[in-house]
Amino acid sequence: MTPYQAHLTQLQSRFEQAMVHHQLDAILIYSGHHGYAFLDDNAMPFRVNPYFKIWLPLINQERSFVLVRPNTRPKLFLYQKADYWHAEPSLPNGEWQDAFEFEIIDDPAKAVKTCRDNYNNTALIGDTLDQSDMFQDWPEASLNPSGLLAQLDYQRAYKTEYELENLRAANRLAAKAHKAAKHAFFNGASELEIHHAYLASLACREIDLPYNNIIALNEHAAVLHYDDYAPTPPAQSKSFLIDAGSSVNGYHADISRTYVGPDVKDGAEFAALFQAYKREYFALLDEIQIGHSYLDFHDSAHRRLSGLLSEFELVNCSAEQAYALGYSRTFFPCGVGHYIGAQVHDVGGHLANELGELLPQDPRYPFLRLLRPMERNTVFTVEPGIYFIPQLLAEQSQNPDFNWSRIHQLKAFGGFRLEDSMAITELGVENLSAPHLDH
Ligand code: GLY
Ligand code: MN
Ligand code: MN
Q1: pTM to 2 decimals?
Q2: Which of 158, 159, 175, 156 is nearest to 432 (CA)?
Q3: What are the φ and ψ backbone dihedral angles of 412, each rounded to 5 degrees?
Q4: CB atoms within 10 A of CB 91
Q5: Nearest to 34 by CA among 63, 58, 55
Q6: What angle do CA 271, 274, 277 make, to 5 degrees?
Q7: Which of 20, 240, 365, 376 is the most buried (most CB within 10 A)?
Q8: pLDDT tens per residue, the chain (439 residues)?
Q9: Distance from residue 225's CA to the centre of ligand 3 (Å)
Q10: How far is the first Cα of the chain from the last one, in angstroms, to the nearest whole number?
């Protein structure tokens, strides 16, 4: 059995369990459709339903469906309409073609009606927004039922070998583009030019990226999701934070790196802090093991960052005090990582079980997206950072525990982070990102 066939077998089994549990005859997955700009006929980019693309590597097929039934091959209703305005999305060759029963449709509403007529209890998973006509006969309770989604979301944390292969391939591609971006940075390129170097290396369009590239020079690195791409380079490029991914068959990479510019005033101080951070980063990666709580892992990142704040005199207190007083949260306000897979921020990180019960969130860490313990066959990112964020520093402006002269010295660099995707497989802990790219 190939990895893809084994993947389908696994999915079929998960969906069959869910159908039994939720007393369903079938599950119909709608790929989705693009939206339009307000008062315009200008189409917005299409993003496929992740539940569609985990079944088969079709990421551009709108208005199509996968029908899952017990003990039966899954069926693809593939939308193809004779239309001289638009190009038809090309279908990739592959094993998926042998795995599905096929039907070409030119009217998605008909496919929906056929399923409604043939299967009494069918749940629909998909975006029904602006499609009320198509789904009007569908009982409200069967549209994206939350209990069903919780069960399936919970299981999506456990990646199959096919999914791991795609994630590895996505990381290989992203690493290649990261190298092109690094090269552009050290040649003095602007943010926009670096972004273009990244796209050119992948020979892709922006819409093909899993998320907007973060290409941040200098203080822009302090904007956590910066995607503004200044077209001209700053007077001096002191630092470069890149957070950029790639996708293979709809599975994503999400990699961050930081570089210090050459011959920069205070560059040695920033580089020394970053070097010490790397030591803590690798020590944190070494903590990864089955059974370890990801919340404790996040907390350990805060302890380690607190140590750096004290060691490099960004605060005037001990590491323990900095941790206890929450000062590391001023410099690192986000979560240390998240599940990754068919979605960059993959689903299920807050679920305690298949019933949809939620794990308790630590009030200190409201942005942590993953609370489940580390388990075999899960893949998550690790991305602690230190950022000089004006808004958060302003909240501490009267606090004498903060070493303001030191902070002012370094804040023009914006900040830094590294980010790798880590898999826990049969063979142990595997860094999916690092084999292809230095830290
Ligand atoms: N690139 C988005 C993230 O790191 O979560
Ligand atoms: Mn991430
Ligand atoms: Mn990222």
Answers
A1: 0.97
A2: 175
A3: -70, -15
A4: 15
A5: 63
A6: 155
A7: 240
A8: 999 999 999 999 999 999 999 999 999 999 999 999 999 999 999 999 999 999 999 999 999 999 999 999 999 999 998 788 888 888 888 999 999 999 999 999 999 999 988 998 999 999 998 888 899 888 999 999 999 999 999 999 999 999 999 999 999 999 999 999 999 999 999 999 999 999 999 999 999 999 999 999 999 999 999 999 999 999 999 999 999 999 999 999 999 999 999 999 999 999 999 999 999 999 999 999 999 999 999 999 999 999 999 999 999 999 999 999 999 999 999 999 999 999 999 999 999 999 999 999 999 999 999 999 999 999 999 999 999 999 999 999 999 999 999 999 999 999 999 999 999 999 999 999 999 999 9
A9: 9
A10: 37
Test site for ligand 1: of 178, 213, 254, most ligand atoms within 8 A of the Cβ: 254
Q: How far apart are CA 302 and CA 280, in angstroms?
A: 11
Phi and psi, residue 36, nearest 5°? -125, 150
Atom of ligand 1 nearest to the CA of 245: 1
Determine if ligand 1 sits within 6 Å of the CB of residue 193: no
Distance CA 364, CA 332 (A): 12
CA of 26 to the centre of ligand 2 (A): 34
Q: Which of 229, 252, 222 is nearest to 181 (CA)?
A: 229
The helix/strand/coil state of 123 is: strand
8 Å CB contact between 344 and 252: yes
Contact 151, 145 (CB under 8 A): no
